[in-house]
Amino acid sequence: MFGPDITFLGVERCDLGDPASFEGADVVIVGAPFDGGTSNRPGARFGPMALRQACYLPHDGSRPSLALRVDPLKDLKVLDAGDVECFSGDIETSIRDIEEAVHTISASGAVPLILGGDHTVALPDARGVARHHGYGRVSMIHFDAHADTGDVEFGNLYGHGQPMRRLIESEAIRGDRFLQIGLRGYWPGPDTLDWMAQQRMRSYEMTEIVERGLTECLTEAFAIATDECDGVFLSVDIDVCDPGHAPGTGTPEPGGLSSRQLLDAVRRICYELPVVGIDVVEVSPPYDHADITAYLGNRVILEALSAIARRRETAAGGEPWDPRKPLLEGRRAVPPAAAGL
Amino acid sequence: MFGPDITFLGVERCDLGDPASFEGADVVIVGAPFDGGTSNRPGARFGPMALRQACYLPHDGSRPSLALRVDPLKDLKVLDAGDVECFSGDIETSIRDIEEAVHTISASGAVPLILGGDHTVALPDARGVARHHGYGRVSMIHFDAHADTGDVEFGNLYGHGQPMRRLIESEAIRGDRFLQIGLRGYWPGPDTLDWMAQQRMRSYEMTEIVERGLTECLTEAFAIATDECDGVFLSVDIDVCDPGHAPGTGTPEPGGLSSRQLLDAVRRICYELPVVGIDVVEVSPPYDHADITAYLGNRVILEALSAIARRRETAAGGEPWDPRKPLLEGRRAVPPAAAGL
Amino acid sequence: MFGPDITFLGVERCDLGDPASFEGADVVIVGAPFDGGTSNRPGARFGPMALRQACYLPHDGSRPSLALRVDPLKDLKVLDAGDVECFSGDIETSIRDIEEAVHTISASGAVPLILGGDHTVALPDARGVARHHGYGRVSMIHFDAHADTGDVEFGNLYGHGQPMRRLIESEAIRGDRFLQIGLRGYWPGPDTLDWMAQQRMRSYEMTEIVERGLTECLTEAFAIATDECDGVFLSVDIDVCDPGHAPGTGTPEPGGLSSRQLLDAVRRICYELPVVGIDVVEVSPPYDHADITAYLGNRVILEALSAIARRRETAAGGEPWDPRKPLLEGRRAVPPAAAGL
Amino acid sequence: MFGPDITFLGVERCDLGDPASFEGADVVIVGAPFDGGTSNRPGARFGPMALRQACYLPHDGSRPSLALRVDPLKDLKVLDAGDVECFSGDIETSIRDIEEAVHTISASGAVPLILGGDHTVALPDARGVARHHGYGRVSMIHFDAHADTGDVEFGNLYGHGQPMRRLIESEAIRGDRFLQIGLRGYWPGPDTLDWMAQQRMRSYEMTEIVERGLTECLTEAFAIATDECDGVFLSVDIDVCDPGHAPGTGTPEPGGLSSRQLLDAVRRICYELPVVGIDVVEVSPPYDHADITAYLGNRVILEALSAIARRRETAAGGEPWDPRKPLLEGRRAVPPAAAGL
Amino acid sequence: MFGPDITFLGVERCDLGDPASFEGADVVIVGAPFDGGTSNRPGARFGPMALRQACYLPHDGSRPSLALRVDPLKDLKVLDAGDVECFSGDIETSIRDIEEAVHTISASGAVPLILGGDHTVALPDARGVARHHGYGRVSMIHFDAHADTGDVEFGNLYGHGQPMRRLIESEAIRGDRFLQIGLRGYWPGPDTLDWMAQQRMRSYEMTEIVERGLTECLTEAFAIATDECDGVFLSVDIDVCDPGHAPGTGTPEPGGLSSRQLLDAVRRICYELPVVGIDVVEVSPPYDHADITAYLGNRVILEALSAIARRRETAAGGEPWDPRKPLLEGRRAVPPAAAGL
Amino acid sequence: MFGPDITFLGVERCDLGDPASFEGADVVIVGAPFDGGTSNRPGARFGPMALRQACYLPHDGSRPSLALRVDPLKDLKVLDAGDVECFSGDIETSIRDIEEAVHTISASGAVPLILGGDHTVALPDARGVARHHGYGRVSMIHFDAHADTGDVEFGNLYGHGQPMRRLIESEAIRGDRFLQIGLRGYWPGPDTLDWMAQQRMRSYEMTEIVERGLTECLTEAFAIATDECDGVFLSVDIDVCDPGHAPGTGTPEPGGLSSRQLLDAVRRICYELPVVGIDVVEVSPPYDHADITAYLGNRVILEALSAIARRRETAAGGEPWDPRKPLLEGRRAVPPAAAGL
User: Fold this and answer.
1) pTM metric for this prediction
2) What are the tens digits of pLDDT across the range D31-60?
3) By the CB < 8 Å criterion, does C120 face chain F?
4) Does A66 touch chain F (CB under 8 A)?
5) Is Hydrolase there in the keyword field (chains A, B, C, D, E, F) (predicted)?
6) CB count, 10 Å around CB of D134?
């Protein structure tokens, strides 16, 4: 929508208005360049543009993962549908149009991967997915510094601080299958926290994560996420990371995860769980430096895609992934010539 | 609305809900921290905050103008009403609320001075003023790189590219009393230009300004602005200046006025014409460097206020302003003691 | 002193010249916008302004802590006395005036919380507190990359590299109750280190912290800090954090703590120890990016205040704080209606 | 070559390896992302990417010029051939490949418009054009702060300080048809200046331009440029502008032209003279702020294209361009309905 | 003093403690890295470091001026004495030590050229010169947005807003030989202006400069400056330029001179008048972008030195400088070989 | 080569053309300001300049290490030979000249410490060392996000993505003594990884490092590095660190080491292993913020030098280094006077 018409790292384009163009896709990427719901620093409208190109390698539709030994952009059929036209001054129309686009993707059998935009878009993102998979049948794993469960803000029901409340109220996502990771700071207040408790949400504040370890917290969350649910929606607000790792965002909260922790967590989720929808939100290029936040968002996406690809490979009988295996172990260590090829 | 609750350079606060608080004011400043209408780079929501404080001098409610020999913050009663609450995701509500605030100020007899926000706010700004002074009785002098006369954009009637069309359509401002200064570049297209011609607008593109000189163009415009109109609304989009002088804005267009030209033009307008409303818009701090755009916007405001103060002083029998007079000429050049005081 | 006259996140103002205005306060915040003692990059004079406003939430004098379940700005009476006027070119007058302000606060029974400024201000900060609580009766916990125990630098006894030496020499703080955490790098040299050893200071260099763990080091330090002392002064130089987490500072030293580590350590100190004074120094906005250093400093302050509030609540019979307790556990998990309310 | 594969503001792509793809083109744009010849700040390799997209309007292959009343991207057939692959570490191969690409375009009858890259590329740019139009038959108008007539630098014949010497030595461009505008500063030294005088170059240093006026200097230069030459090559080094207007460049020299001056001069050249090749070089995004230098470069290109389009329109019998004509004068000022349409 | 020990563009070093080291020098450069007198943004302490190296050419002690046809670093004996040690927290000692250094240079017969530092240093700079040339015998030409004639600020007699008052009070410089160029904005107030008038200062505010032209104003000022004075001190506060051209400064005031205007004015002063001392102040690197302010300051210095060199050449019988003469005119336009050499 | 002629933190200069000037040196620093081999963001040419001066302490040739209790710049004879002249447009000449310089140093008995430059320079760096110590007799410990084992890129054998392949092919370094630490992301692809496996390289990808711990991986690597090799070359690409800690680099890859981890690892390598050559590369100042990447690179160098100094001290009978020992333990804790001195 803003700037040139590009696709994510050069993958093929598709057109949501033309079902044949994305038939058989595994993942369809769509941009939601909306930041009218931001309560503070705007700029996430440029997130889709930044996330699609923040990479120093050629934009050739190929990214072989060192760690997972797959090429997600080749092993999966990943297409980019471009951006939903979002006018930041009209939040209701934007939400409606995004939901429609996401649902179209979901209904085609592909995993929608939405490039935000501010976190407002999680409402149409997850609801669009749930409309296809069934309300209440998709759990949510939500990385964020903020609970995003506000009620009315600035006189409005919608915005980047409220999508999770609207999702639960709409019953698209069950409150007791809502897992939040990385919360911290000074928002929301007690009333909202009480409301969250009443929904039986499970929110891991950073103190608990530090004390118990992220690995243990994730394992616990995974069990909840897969109980009576068929799929998982993964929503990554880049501000879950510490501002040192992700300065380019609207509402930075010190004391967050490191980039490494986020990448490893996303990988594990997409490898171990049946992820049916993903969004990566709140990357705000005007506040970024040397594109480091956009690079991180781009890698979160690639990590997710790689793990989905490896999960499918494993499911199809491939070797389970072993994170301790050395990079070069098991490779064709004898030159073809020496091997008599 | 964003950040701490401050007033313009420390002037006194007033409350638009309490008429007594601004009774007798000459000028009332109000912030319109809205940027949901921006077609490209957002950030103008932080304009009011930046314009109020971009000054290295103490925030003491005093600014003696070297050039005009008045202290606008003391010689005039200037108050700051704070910000209208504007949710950038809801353009229609924001426009309504801003118009209401501006009308309240205008109706009190004061000159409203609105701190944008993106240029969307010129619609409620000028309409709020015209509601008081009479539709068609206020002319417009509009500094901008862009005509802002678009019709529908992003499926919406409102936005920062359309306020001038809506103003003329609503008959708040007559098309043939609409003076535009500084246009340039590659927008809008022929259809919109035809529409503008049909409204008998007078638009000075930079080429004409360079060829004829800004002084001559302004003189010509002043004659139109005061013909059959009782007052003038001055709308300053900071992008009328060259990006070298005003990088912190949403849609920078190279080849604009220098800071000096803009300050001198604003001064002349407010000294020579009966200005009844002012807005300064499109200062976008996230794209600024070393606050130079915010400083410029702050000085545009002070220049306007100083000239209004001097105009009133002259009208009350004071000496007419002579721009060629040396700074120290006519000052009390003999020390009080030597003068026997 | 610089820019508009604001208070810390909107708490009420008080006036150090008017004792009634801060009677009964628990904490009084005061700015020390001095950077004339900086040996390299200046800019910390803008620290107080930045620390007061670096937050994306409304400046409403309320900040409910997710982790500690208190609202420090409401559960405590926190006031802001504004800035001590500090002329950076006159270090001695500035030190004198800051000490006077701090002592005034301390003498009133409140905890002074000083917003630096460069680290020069730790001298008047801690001495002002010790004048009230008794020389030698207050221990120091000092987070910093640097020991700040230089003797004469640039021909002067005062500056941001020397306050700790002056404090010990003046006997305001006992050398053997001086705990330093986070030291690293290449300063000071052997003679100064010998002097420090002679004072029986206990300085935790990063190597020891990495090897033993920060938790163990803190526990050890706490025992020293409370031995024969009635109170603890907490001095946080933001450069104790790694430059990746705190770039906006005067003398960044790679290899420091993460934001998370600092926040957790400050929380623990203020929850477990009788803190009687705090300063947060060396935030230098001109070198910051996207305000991340200012945000970190703001959160250090809120973490300290929250822990003080929780400590008082616990002391008054409240439940001791359990860092492993899930965020929503123990909240009013049954909606009022369902509970028959 | 770097980043996504985009075209200039959305014009159609062509392929230099496929002559049919650019048959009948008026202008073919090609990127030369080379900065291995830079003597100081690199980054011009990202010039093509930045110049193609530095615009806030939709990338829709249309840009109606307000001043010239043409739409250069529609009135001309403008195509974008993408980038020549340039390895910055291999200057000789890069020069060879760029020259080949430019010659291919020139030979097709189109005007090549090269997006630099550092000024090294002017050698293959102008030589590629001269190979088609005839050595010595094309004059050069060269905007720059620097003469770029160095001999051997860093032990090499090629680089961004030497292309003009190599061009004259190769006889591609006659020294006495070499017009330089905007030189200033402290380079080159007397020997090189003597060499330039011997070639009968005509170089307008800023002092002469200030004293005589740019308009007069250009008029004089135009007479030389068209004497015994069939075409003009226009080479615009963005550093001809003052660093305030063009900070994002490798070797900024204070005291240059304003943006407005450069745009007006480029317009006049392309309207009045038979331009057969253009390059815009030395835009270095890593040193830019808020993209203002890239925006300026983009507008230099559009100004050139617009003037070429208007020149052709005038040549085909259209009304000569009058810079003093008001923007809306002569437009369809009666609404279609009122006109009975 | 800060960073590595370098000299201005590679000229030879001298030592003020060793008179032999600067015997026979024409100009001695000395740094005054002091910013303790800044009323707002600090950073000018890094001015000397930045001014010495802000150039993309080799640091080889040679800079042939295109415009003036001299090489000031070779035609004059220019030495660099390094920095005076200035502790920004101790303004009085710093002033004393700078004055001593400047006087030492002046007494040796060389022109001192001081690299600021904030404008505080003009007091010791001009007083150091006047001590040698005679109190009242040196006039002042002062480029600045601000009059710098404040009395007491922050309780102190010294600072960057007061040096000109102290100079006149001390009778080092006569008030009626004090020429100020470029003033504008909202400081100082009437009382200070009255004081200035009483001293018979002549201050050119920007309005007068725009109306009358800078050239005419300078000519008028030159007559005053040379009346009953033997020498001229030139003090250039970089903020005399518009913030678009000089963002990296402490107290930017919109509406100033362009870079080109300042360079031409400095050149003319140093060519036409007997300059006996120079300072260039208020370059603040932390607020600069892409070093453009530092580059401008560096060129101000080179322009001054070049003009001094050309003035001496002319005085020694050389051809007077003609600004309208084309760059290559009069050069050795016949190649040595062709000329039979 | 760029900017002023300085040495690393003020150590003495030597001249590679004059063997006497570096006779007896322990370490000779040399700059390789080459970035023509960069596949994406350039700027590393300014690495040597930045690495030499990125320190807030005086540039006095002394840096007492707190952790290691040595002063590497005094306890070792460390000299700086300045920069090898590298024209970034000519990669082959640059490689040749760098190798020659490094070999000269190595042959003198000193450890060469090369300041990059992009990683292209590792080829001449390590080959220059191996030419002296024997091909195959020096192992490599290589910190990097990237394997740098590409074959032909951009049609060229040389560049910053290929040095490690060329080193192994040339047999300067044995593939099975090549240890890589910190690899991650999406490059290179399977064919290159197979080639690496065939060479029996040992590459620690971040996943393995996170799972097993960096300490254990290093210990394992050390055993390989010292098996049948006499020395170790340490090559540190700053992008091994997370972009949050090292934004100023050409090809940032999220998820890397922290600064602390890198410093500790470098220290351990240089303390435990016989390091015979070091390079620190890919610091790119144009992309840095607040110099934090340059500071990190500077500290990597100091950490390496300190550990070498301590290793020699220990080898000479000094106390082995104990990382758990408190900073002040074992210092002269009794004041000289009290001790009767």
Assistant:
1) 0.97
2) 999 999 999 999 999 999 999 999 999 999
3) no
4) yes
5) yes
6) 13
